[in-house]
Specification:
By secondary structure, the chain is of the alpha+beta class. The chain contains 10 helices and 8 strands. The strands form 3 sheets. A 4-stranded antiparallel sheet has the order 5-6-8-7. The longest helix has 18 residues. Bound molecules: zinc ion.
Amino acid sequence: MSSAQPVHTSTVLSRVATSVCLAGSALVAASCASTSSDEVAAEPATEIVVVEEQVGDSASSQNNLSTDSGNSRPQRGPNDQRLVPEQEMYGAQRPQEATVAGQTKSITDPNSIWILVNKHNSLPRYYEPEDLVTPDMPAKGTHLQLRAEAAKALVDMSRAAQVEIGKPIQLVSGYRSYDNQKDLYDKYVAKDGQEAADTYSARPGFSEHQTGLTADLSTVHGKMEKFGDSKLGKWTAENSWKFGYVLRYTPQNHSTAGYQPESWHYRYVGKELAKYYHENHLNSLEEAFNLPAAPDYQTGAN
Ligand SMILES: [Zn+2]
């Protein structure tokens, strides 16, 4: 659709993605080429971690970076409403807001449904959402809460799946605290070493699960790692945008997000952004917010 749309991928993202996939380590290259969830480590997916750089700190020192000043950027089509951050790189002056699909929201406030969490952007250690609830749906696991808005959307999606293909979605993992994530990550590091663990598990503070907006999913009797191969997983991949969710880690965005593909890890961003993401064939939240790729941790991130 939207053949009149310009190609959005920023030159920065494209360049980084290409170079990483072509010249990265064997491990990275293998993952770039991978399209099979079978190759994903049979470990629960995790993300995130350590918080040396508190999101709130740099945020408080920089205001108004998201004003309309994209005049030095390359051509942008009439329907491309995303705000162009002035800074290409994260750091002291990184943008705090993004404008996408006619909406402007914070991408650094942990309470924003657009909070961007990746290997360059962590959450405060003690951040915990105030509106966590347990979704009324099939669930199996130990971390089964989500923020209220994300929970409602997930329940709606599961019920729609039940109606359309006869099977509900199962929640496997939702909100995880910094300490929950630290336990997971440390376990993976002990098992596989840090370099390997960083490809499939987030360091504490860097996990989207700490936002309460992220859900790992499965079929009721299936393994999470096999979700993408299932009829339900395919339905979810095609329909999640209608409920405000995007598939966060895919074969296409490995070099942007820095994780092996996870066909089960969905991030709630709200219906407006998810619809825009779908209709414009975007491949990552970094691309949606017009920010640089973040495939690796920055110095001092752990
Ligand atoms: Zn996950």
